[in-house]
Amino acid sequence: MTEDSKYDAPGQLDSKRRLLRQQTQAHHQRLNQHPLLKALLSRDLSLGQYQQILSAYADLYQSIEEQIELYLAEHPSTFDYTQRRKSHWLTEDLAYFATTESAVTFYGKSGFSFPSIDSVGQLFGILYVIEGSTLGGQQIAKALVGYH
Questions:
Q1: Distance CA 14, CA 5 (A)
Q2: Nearest-angstrom CA–CA distance, 91 and 7
Q3: What pTM does this model have?
Q4: Measuring CA to CA, how many Å separate 141 from each of 40, 117, 138, 144, 148?
Q5: Residues 72 and 79: beta-carbon distance below 8 Å
Q6: Which of 72, 77, 111, 132 has the smallest number of CB atoms closer than 10 Å to its CB?
Q7: Residues 8-40: pLDDT tens digits?
């Protein structure tokens, strides 16, 4: 039995999903309390704050996606991440909202570098968080509809 085949048994998917949720819950709750993220649901969110959040996320996602692609290039599989990339949405949003010089110059300047991915477990953990953040973004968008 290979390391990866032990996860193929029926019922293992639900238990792994629960384990991922359990292991990330405290981090998720702490992250939701970050002032920039809390500001997303505030009626007082300024365009500049929104641009700052988008810029930080764009840098973060670009760095994460680079590491995912590097890992997948070194560990060939049938999984194709290219259709799951999200950083282009953030850069498109930044371009749309780039009405101030600070929004344009902040993007790409954070110097953020995501650590390398060294195992399939790390890859799955990162993908779990990224896909979950997309769902969270959809919930934030729904909440913001009534704010304009």
A1: 16
A2: 36
A3: 0.69
A4: 9, 30, 5, 5, 12
A5: yes
A6: 111
A7: 555 676 787 788 778 777 877 777 777 767 777
